[in-house]
Every structure is written in C-alpha cells, then in structure tokens.
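User: Round two. Same drill as before: sequence, then structure, for each protein.

Assistant: Same drill it is. First protein:
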Amino acid sequence: MPGENLTRDEARERAALLSVDGYEVSLDLRSAIGEHTGGEPRTFRSVTTVRFRCAEPGASSFADLIAPEVTALSLNGRDLDPGQVFDGSRILLEDLAADNELVVDARCAYSRTGEGMHRFVDPEDGEVYLYTQYEPADSRRVFANFEQPDLKAPYRFEVRAPEGWTVWSNGAGELADGVWRFAETKPIPTYITCVVAGPYHYVTDSYERTFEDGTRLEIPLGAMCRRGLAPHFDADDVFLVTKQGLDFFHDHFDYPYPFGKYDQAFVPEYNLGAMENPGMVTFREEFIFRGKVTRASYEGRANVVLHEMAHMWFGDLVTMEWWDDLWLKESFADFMGAFSLVGATRFTDGWITFANRRKAWAYRADQLPSTHPITADIRDLQDAKLNFDGITYAKGASVLKQLVAYVGQDAFLEGARRYFKRHAYGNTRLGDLLSVLEETSGRDMAAWSRAWLQTAGVNSLTPQVLLREDGRIDELAVLQEAPESHPELRPHRVAVGLYRRTDAGTLERYAQAGTDVEGARTVVAELAGAEAPDLVLVNDDDLTYCKTRFDETSLAALRRDLGHMTDPLARALCWSALWNMTRDALLPAREFIGLVVKFAGQETDIGVLQMLHAWAESAAVHYTAAERRTEAVRELCRIASVRMYHPDAGGEHQLAWARFFAHMADVPADFELLASLLDGTVTLPGLEVDQELRWAFLEPLAAHGVADEKRLDEELARDDTASGKRHHVRCLAARPSAAVKARCWAQVVESDALSNALVEATISGFAQASQRELLAPYTERYFAAIERVWTERSIQIGMDVVRGLFPSFQDSQATLDATDAWLTSHEDAAPALRRLVLESRDDLARALRGQACDAAATEG
C-alpha cells in the first residue's frame, strides 16, 4: 500500500519539523471474544490523543495509522473528514500550529500474522490471548502515531478487556470501573510500547538491590504464559536468570534499571525470539519446554533473557536515531547477552556457544550478496525489517568482542556508563558512542570504525610456519586475505596458539602469543624459536571476527586428533573453521562428514554437538555430490543409531543423538525402529520418548509415507494443544504426495487463512530433502508467485514464503538459471524482495560449488 513503507528521508524531514509531548491511547479489546461473522476483519476500537509541537507553524506533515476504518478525526479541535485525509496508512495533517492536539478514533484489525495486535485462540480450551509486536513499525496497526524511533514520547495506556482477563503494558496497571489504566511511561519510541491481555497464567517475584550510596531499588517481577503451558512453566529458573542479569548490569552499567516493573510474557505464534519492550518483555512461548531438552536449550533461553535485558539500556534508555544504527542496540545486546551469561549465570561456557553458533550466523550473512556494513544504509522500513540479520546481531557482537580486546574491558564499560548518562531517554548516532569510547580508551575510534563498522565482508587468517634445521620455528606469520568484492584488510587483535600431540594422545596448547594483525602479512615474533607445532590456531580464544584457515600440517593434525583436543573453546573454533572451509568448497563435504562420524561422539559440549548435527545434515543434503548423497545420509544415520546407546543413558547427549537419528532416517529399518520407539515395543535405556520427541519421530515417518493422516490425527488427539496442532500441520505437509503438496501450496501461497505459526509449520513440512522429484514442479510456480505474494501479504508472511519456498532442493544449474532469469526480468521489484531472492540464489550457488568439490574428491 502506498505510504506504508516510510523512507529515511521522510522520517528525517518529519523529525526536523515535529517533537512529541505525549500520547494517551485507549483500546477497547472486548471484541476479541465472541462470535464474528462476515468477510470483514475482526476489529477493536482505538482512540489516540497525541500532543506535539511543530517548529514551523502552518506547515504540513502526517501521522501513521494502518486500520480498516477511521470513524472520527480532529486536529486542534477542528474535525477532519477521514475520507479526505486518511488513505489507509497515513493521516494528512495540514496547517499545523506551534502546539497541536490530534485525536484519532479508529477501528483497528486484530492480526493473525504476529504483527500489530495478534489474536490467538487456544485449541485446547478455546481461550483467547492477545499481545502486541511492533518492531520495526507495526504500532501504527494498533494506534495512531509518528512511527519512527527518534520521535520518542511518554505514553499513557488504558484498556477495556473482557471480564476475567488481566491486562499488562509497559507501566504498572490497575483495574478500576472496568478499565485497566497504566502508569505513564518514560519517553520511549513507538515500537517498544506493548499490550498483553488475556487469561494468562501469571507468576510474581521481586528483585531488590541496595547501592553503595544507600539507595534501595525494588523491581516487581512477573512472568506469564498461556494456561495450557502452565504445568511446564519453570518460572523459578526464568526469575533466577533475571535477577542474576539485573545484578550484573547494575554492577557494570552504574545506571539503575529505569522502567519500574519487569514483566516477561511467553506468548503464542511469536515471529521473533523476543522483544525488549521496557517493563513488558515478550518471548516466543517455545522457550517453555514441554519435553526434555538439553542444557543448550536452557542456555539459549538464558541468553535471550539477558539479551533483552541489556536492551533496557542499549535501545530503550538510549535509542538509535534511525534504523541505520540498529547495531547500537542489537549488536550491543547480543554481545552483552553472552558477556553477562558467562559472568553472571551457571552457563560459564557461553563464549563457546557464541563462537560456534552465533558467529556461524554472522559468517553466512557476511558472505551473501546482500552483506552490508554493521552501520547499514537503511533507506526505508522494508530495508529495516530485513536488517535484523546475522550481521547486525552476531557480527556486530563479534566486533564488539574484538573492541573489548582492542580498548580493554574497563575502558569499554566506562564508555558505556558515560553513554547512558549523557544520552538517557534520547537518540544517538554512531559518533555519539565513538566519542565516549575515545574519551575512555585514548584510542582512535574513527579508524577502528571505518575498518570494522563501515565496511562489509569477512577476512580470512591463515598461518604460515617456516622451520629451522633443528625443527623449531624460524618464523610464524599470519596471512590475511579478503574477497575481491570487499577487499578491506582490517586490524585484528588475535591470540595465536600452538598445539601439539602429547604422549597421552591429546592435542594441547603449549604456547600462545597475542599480536595485532595488520595488512596482508604479520610476523608473530614472540613465537620464533618455539618447538614446531602440530597445529596452529590463529584466532585462539576467539578474540576477533574472521574465518580461520589451516596450513596442511594443522589440517593433518585435525584429521588425526580433533576429538582429542582438550580445550573445548579451541575445539569449537576448529569445528567452525572446518565448516567454513566446507561452505567455501575448500574441504569436500565427504571429509567434513567423515570428521563428524569420527569425532562428534567425543564432543563434550552439548551445544557444539547439536551444531555439528545441523552442519552435518546440511553437508549431506546440500554440499555432497548427488551420486553419493544417499551414502552420506546413511553414514550419519549409522553413527547416530550407535550413539543413541550412549553410556550417559538418559542424558542430553543421548537425546541429541536420538533427534539426529530421526532427522537422518531414510530406510525401512530406521523407520521400523522409530515406530517401535513410538509404540513402546522397543526401548532405549534412559531415553524417555516424551510428547515432543514423539513428534520428532513422527515427522520422518510422515515424510517417507510410513505414518498416514490417520496416524497423525491419532497423535493430535493425544496432544490436542496449540503445540500439537503446529506439529500436526507440519507432519501433514511432509507427506510424500502430489495432492498434499498442492494443498499446502494453495494454503500458503493462494490463501491468507492460516496464521503465521501455521504458515511456518506448513512451509517447514512442505520442503523435504528426500522429496526432490516431488517438489520439482514448484520451481516455476515459485517464481511466478513471489512478486504477487510480496505485494499482497504482510512483510512477515512475504519473508516466510519467499525464503521458505525457494527451490533449494532443486540444486541444479537449471534452478540457478531460473533464479537469474527472474532477477533479470524483475529489476524493478521491491529491493527487499530482490534481496531475499539474491540470498537464496547465493546459497544455491554455494551448494553447487560444494557439490563440485565433493565430486572432484570422489573422483580423486
């Protein structure tokens, strides 16, 4: 719709003209329950009063609102005709005064896409649950406003809700005369205001802190979920991490939590991991575990809790001016999530997860054709939506980790403290942060910023070892390379580790030196004269952001002894480097899979093991030559079937291997074992086949035609819950039938009847690696449909469809050619849509190069 996609230029012009004094928002959500008939969307009443000033009286501007209807409008007491000034997304405001009051009475639509005011009906008990999700610009689907981050203001919300419901917002609330009224917020941007309403299960606690000056802080804590999930809700652990995080950030930030209460809502059908609404953080409810999960899942949840908490300072207290500087909140929150996880919680190995999982996301994103500097060029809201990516989050966090090594932790944290105090409740740009870091570190932050924040791409670091006649190191150098597309050679602060095989057969570090890598070749003088290493790790301790490469001697050591490497972080870094080499077609997929088969069973870190499972599966289905793909899958399935009988019976490693076995199962004997585990005729010592694991076993049975619709319906009857419904939809879509695939395609592409969660489940089931021939007809249909889908559907659903239905399993030159033909003939398509297609094309091209590498190794 014209006007929905706000541009940066429009936002800057409006910010120069207007400043906002405050909002009063009144919502009537009683229409959320009860019957609703007709083709019109279910709506609720939204009345907004906004008071704002205009720097140029007599000028014109606009307010934002996406709503089916505006019933009344007034500006400075003057009634306006909605038909004349409201076009469905913007309200024209003419002849503004110095001080203005706008009142908008509208009918806004409930959402089924997770954007705006999302309405969910629990199939288990029929209860209705509401919550809002706005980032980057969907608060305008709930109330009229100026939807851009630099027009911050205080808000007062009041909400009428069905009897028996509880309502929460950013501020503390109370119910009087049938209306929930909430305390006025501090000045915050539109996208972090929030309303949660419904019959949620709610648990309370409190946090108390006395500071050195004697002042005392008490923060009411709350945590909530749907009633159906209440038996599984371990709120005590959520509160434990919350308190540990608040202690950590108070210790390091010297700025007390500024937003009063701290509620955390785990909500259904959530598009994101979580959202940092001050005082009312929202999370996807999958963080409430219905079955047994590994320690990595609890660590992941704790990391997200702390990430969102860091946003209370980075993003909420101090907000970026425009989405160009999204990194000012997301990169910092991602780094602080890991930093506080290690420093404050039981998950003291969090940097291993960061190195192995988060950075893998960054490395992939930074090698796509859509890669961009951490400080990105965000032209409009569609650009902003797509830039919540691995560069903004994980690369930015990695670069901040490098910055801490560069300036020192004390200088870094002191810079943060000054930043908060100097810009509290305001908006900032890149230079505002760099200036305080220059003050505290004495370093030239402009040069660092140019190299790390304002250029794209990832460097590769490779060791070069020259030996003397006596076998000791004559010279050890680090070689730095950059791709032609992004040739910047950056300064890297690294630790170079030397490892050798011990008499006990382990691979251990015996020497290490820190050095600043500059340019194409850097000599590490401190290591001259050291004994010759079996392995050189050029980014030991993971201080910098780079792709690590190995010389031939080091590769030989890893082939022999990777599983015997005693340092878990070093081992994780080596696995990550080997995976990057596989993706870059420098290491055949068959060799990576061979290393997983040989050594993954010895991996002690459960998060690394689960990452290896994901990489190995990707290596088998995407990077292995077609003629040996079946062999690769069988090889992985075989080792998984062996490792399921883990000596740690009942432990998390056994659970991870059982799930991996289900992923890789592809022959009748595998399916027979899965079916026997489901019906209980076969048991594995220690393995509890709980409801979540049952669905994990059922999906491959459905995908290979072993479990039919009747069997899946029986399982849904056993687990008739919202979670069960999603699993059921995914398994139904996985069945190997042309009629099933056609029906799924119609439900997702030709209809908007499904909610966002069921769209996601349908797409996940539809695309099966084992069904390449069955999916082949959809390549042409995909390219014929995506521009229409992008135009007609919400951006979230558009992203799900364009990414999820790309024919990635049609891995041939013909598919690459079809993609190029679409890009050539659609040069005027929305830039965000073209970006998604270009990214998928790059993944496909990379897979084909990997297959060629693997085929060449097979021939050799």
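Second protein:
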Amino acid sequence: MRISTTRSALLAGAVAVTLSATALPAAFAAPSSSAVISEVYGGGGNSGATLTRDFVELANAGSAAYDLSGFSVQYLPGAPSAGSLWQVSALTGSVAPGGRYLVAQAAGTGGTVALPAPDATGTVAMSATAGTVALVSGTTPLTCKTAADCAADTRIVDLVGYGTAVVREGSGPATGASATASVARAASLADTDDNASDLAAATPSPVNAAGETSGGGEDPGDPGNPTEPGTVRIHDIQGSTRVSPLDGKAVSGVPGVVTAVRTSGSRGFWIQDTAPDADPRTGEGVFVYTGSAAPAVKVGDSVLVSGTVDEYYPSATTQSVTEITAPKVTVVSSGNALPAPVVLDAKSVPSKYVPSAGGGSIDALPLEPSTYALDLYESLEGTRVQIADTRVTGATTAYHEVWVTVAPKQNPTRRGGTLYASYTDQNTGRIKVLSLDPAAPVPTANVGDVLSGTTSGVLDYDSYGGYNLQATALGTLSDHHLKREVTRKQKGKELAVATYNVENLDALDDQTKFDTLAEGVAVNLSSPDIVSLEEIQDDNGAVNDGTVGSEATLKRFTDAIVAAGGPRYSWRYVAPQDGKDGGEPGGNIRNVFLFNPKRVGFVDRPGGDATTPVAAVKTKKGVTLSVSPGRIAPASAAWDDSRKPLVGEFRFHGKSVFVVGNHFASKGGDQPLHGRYQEPVRSSETKRVQQAKEVNTFVKSLLAADKSARVVVLGDLNDFAFSPTVGALTDGKVLKPLITTLPKNEQYSYVYEGNSQTLDHILTSPGVRRFDYDVVHINAEFADQASDHDPQIVRVDVNAPDHGHGHGGHGHHGHH
C-alpha cells in the first residue's frame, strides 16, 4: 500500500495476532484457550526496520480449526481522541490447530525484507510504539475508547494494547514495541488477559498459514516475460471490495488490452480483460504504474503484465487505486479492438451515494454497485466508460478539469448547476473529466454549458474530487452563454449592505484582479452603501516582514471602484497582530468595511485594536458599541489562528445599523465526501461552531440592550445553511439566514467539485423588518473568475414600521 500525494509511502507497521478463547467470549474475563493475537508489529517500513510492512499475527492453541469467516482485526491509536476511529481489516479462511494466520498492514518507505504471503491484507498504518489491536467477531467498527468499555464488548475475542495504549487487557499494555521490535506472546500462547505479562518485546517473526517466514510471496523477483497468460485475471486482482485480495502479492502474465496511456504525472497505462466474469462487483480494468518510465505500449496492444499488486492511496483519507507496480510487459499483438465502454447515465448510476461504515473505513465492505454510486464507480475503476450530452456543473479549472453530471435532473439550480442540498442527499451523477491528450485539453466551459456528443475514456480516482473520467475522446462544447448577474440599484430609502470574499487581495496583485473585483462592486452589485470584505491582506501580501496595514491595498481597490463608475468609498478595519489571524503566512488576512460616506455615516469610537473586545453599551437612546470599529472577543480560543469578526456602527437616515463582518475557519482537514471513511468526519466544524457561538453571544448582548436593534451579520462562514455552524449562529432565533428565503434552486454562492453550495451568508436580526436579498452570480460558475465566491447583497428599509409580524422581507433574483 502507498499513501501519498507525491506517491511516497507513509510510515507503516505490521501486526501479528493470536486468536483467543471462543468466538463470543463473555469479555476479557474469559481468557482464550484457542485463537489469540500472537504478535503485533507496527514498525514495518520505518527508519531502521528490516521488514517493509506492519503485521498482526494470529495463532490457534486449540485442537480444532478456528473459523475466521466474517471476523476482523481492528486497530485504535494508543491515546485515542474523540475523533479516533477503529480501523477494520476483514478476515477470511481459518487458523489450523497450532497454526498461524498473518494479517499484513501498511507498508512504509524503509525496510528490505518482505513479509511472507499474507493470509489477509489491511491498509492500517500502525504506530510502531503504541496502539491497540483487537480480534473481533464481525466487521462493524468497534466504538469503545476505554479498557472498561472494550472489556464489556462481547464481540472482542482477544485484545492487545502495546506501548502506552489506553485500551489494553489487565494491569497494563505490552511494552518494548519499536521500529525494530514487536510484542509477541510466549511459545505456549498462554493468555491470562494481562497484556503486560502475556506479551514481551521480540524480534519481529511473521508466520503465515502456510508456515512461511519472511521473504516469500511478496517480491515478484524476476517473473521473466511470459508468452502465455498466468492464472490470475484482472477481476481476481480487483476483487469484490475496494482493496485487492492480492494486495502486496506478485502476479505473472496477467492478460489485457491496453485501453489508454498516461504519459505525464502518474505515468502508466490501463489494461482491460476482454473476457469478463459474471460478477458486477469485480472490475475488469486496472492501472499499470510505470513510475518515472514512459509506458512502452500503445492503445490496442494485447499484453501480458507481471508485477506486484498495490493499493495506492492518494492521501490518508481517500479511497485507493488498485495498481500493478514494477511491471514487466510482453506485447503479444497490436491493433486489437477495445472492449465496448460502459455507459454512465441517469439510469445506470444509483441514487444512493455510498454505504455507511459508522465513520469507519468502507475498504472491506463488499461492493454493491447496483445500490451505491461510489460502489458502481469503484467496480468500474480502470474500465472504459462513456458519457453523453452531459451538463457542466463545475467550470473548467486551471488544471484543465471540468465537472459534469450524468444525472441532469438531480437537484438542478436555476443556472445549470447541481445543488448540494444536505449531508444525506449527495449528487451521485457528478463526474470530473480530464483529457489524457495534453495537446487537446478539456474545453473552457462554464456551469450550464453542455459537453455534447459522447466522451469516453477510463474511470480513475484521485484525491481532488474522487472518481474521474480520463478521456481519450472528448465531446464538443455547447456554449449556453451564461451571463454574469447585475443586481438592481438600491432605492433612496434602502440601505444596501453586501459581502464579498476577494480572495487574498493585496497591493502586489496585478491590476486586472483589482479592476475585475472593482467592476463586481460598482456594476454587478450596483455600488452598495456598505461592503464587508473578506480576505484583504496586508500591503505586501505573503511577504512576512511584520507589515500589518492594508492602506495601499484599499487605496488601489477603492481607486479601481471609482474608475469602474462606483463611488469613492471610505474604509474601516482593525489591523491584526502580526501572524495571529491564520490565512496565508505573512498575509495578515482581515475583514474590512467599505462604505459610501455620501450615503451612510460611520460612527467612530476609538480604542478598538487587535486585542480589545467590543461590547454592547445600553443608553437611553438604545444600544451603542464600546468601540467602533471593534472585534468580537479576540482573546477567545475560538479565534486562535483565525480571522476575528469586525463590528461597526453605521448611521443611515437617522437610524443605527450594526454590521458584523465574518470569515470563519476553513474546512481544511475534513474527510472528503468520496473518501474511504463514511460517513466523513467534519473535524473543522468544531471550531466554526465555537466561532458562531461567540458571534451569537455578541448579537444577543446587542438585543438585550435594545431588542429592536438592526443587526446585519454577514461574510464567509465556510459552512452550509443546514450546518451546525449556522444553527449555533442563529440560536434563540436572534438571526435569520437570508439564503433560506430564496427559492431552493438559487441557494448557493460557491461551487466545489461540481456541487453548487453556500459558504457565504447574510443574516439579519428581527429589527430588520423589511429587506430584499440577492446572491449575485458573477464568479463561482465561471472558468474566468476574480474570486471563487459570489457576492451577496441585502437592501434594508431601516424605517419600515413594526406591524408586529417580526421578520418580513424576501429574497429574490432581482437582476437585469
């Protein structure tokens, strides 16, 4: 197994397991007299290690064979956190009386000696020094995180904690594990349910069911160049799960026809069997990875391939690509016809997205290609596929990739995209298309355009969006002439407030970026009275020299707005402490207010700086701010290494309006929708919920001083309307998310991996009684974009009478 974005392996380990008492013991209190975990090794492939892989060895001290069908070996980090999950490796077969059973785990970059041919193969990169391994009756991931809770789980047959593991049997974990040492049970296989006394440090000595020791079975050696096919076919390699049953093993003379060749990036070629089996789960295509060497084959060549089967993980949380590595290739004949492509369309792609593993790995689950879209795509990995007349749902990127949908009726937006409606309603028809011919890249397309005719190629997988079509023949672009929207001008009595993420703007950017963004403000947004900007950097951008001011950046931007026909804006911001607000290193990203002083006044109250919190002050005339501009709770841990919200007090037609500009923490680090952990963990959400609570608390303080205060909270919240983040922000119904007032098919401002979604928001307090809200689509759906976000605007009638109806107003697409 390889895990890397650069095709280098992570450190891996190996584990040996000895089976314990009975299939369903009463818990650790009943030591095993038969199947036990006999050896655990997590240092495989580490620096200084001899063995290349981690392993778990099982043993059977009983007098009868021990059936492992439906069992699993599971691994938990030594000091599990709230987000730690048990990783599952499924088992098959049995352990003979007195015999051993070898479970290979992840490979590292070090070591020189291969394991003997494993009896089962997992993908777990185990720690060399501390972890817990369990033999489990079943393949459902365990959920226990303490020794006591695990002792109460009757599915656990045997358990070994080593190093400093929190979860272990008995008085303490087995000690002495390292990059060069395993923990192993005594030759007697005695099991007293005390890891500290039952297992001790040892030289790693993996043994498989055939009694083989290190060095056999994994290294292909020199298979020569056979002229006759071997016994293994591609469907044997692909198997019926996501991980090959032959992972790590040598194969010889695998027959296939070359269907496509990749000459750049991850070099290699795809082959497909022309005599498929009858099982829809077992794929008939596979990628042959040639490394730095250019493939010496042509499309249509009939070949025999020898090499080693490997599961390549583009990153630690993605699914894998099954490959044959270190190949030796015999070309038998050339000019052969290719297998007919599998047609992907609304009928063939299931409406369900992916099976659940309760947050664990789906690697070992049997594929169900007629039920789940990702299972269908996995069953077709490396296989020729074809799509026809597909609508573009994600514009062509700088990497010459375009997203299309093969299910055009799936959550369509008004302008041709595909709406991301909820965590449970995934759009299964999305496919990324790339061209294998560098001289003929995918055409430049916007959302709503159509890739007409047929596009065909092979189905592949990568970390940047998951399954993709590596095209050998591209359809033609039908341009649907998507237009950038222009919102209506606010009326004299309306206060227009907008939010716009200008994507790391600084004074060193080229003039074209300033001009395009300025046109967005002056023309497309029709010159709002207030613009809350996200991602304004300091004046020298990523240069890290202590500069924190943004005066030159804002001068250039506001000059460009005037040149585009807009007003002369003034600005307010609070400069961050150097290096304290996250974002691009050296950039000192911050939120900024622009405002048109001929239409709206800014109430300046001195004292607001990077570390001073703003507070609501109750007066006889209503609520005011202690400082303006100011920052919300800048010392709170919620804002560590993150942008602090900017609060300003404005006056319009004699009324106070409080504006809160936000840029919450990004989604970086979340597990992907298409990854191997399902359902994916959204680890970044924790911080955004904390941030939302801080803003909610501040808004409540304003409303406690004046329940009719007009508050506009807006910005890039980096989360969806249906997210816990927005739930925390609106707690107590103090804020209304205006995105939800739009028709469903217009509730988006951002496009990611072919999904139209909302990360940007405007929310208003109950004191904002009449509003007109609009998302203005000028960026996210276009290949040529000044920012990856669309701006939003709300027009507020500050003098609207209170008719006792609470929150009025509406959202619409008032464009021309």
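Helices lie at 147-151, 195-198, 234-238, 373-379, 511-524, 551-563, 685-705, 724-729.

User: Perfect.
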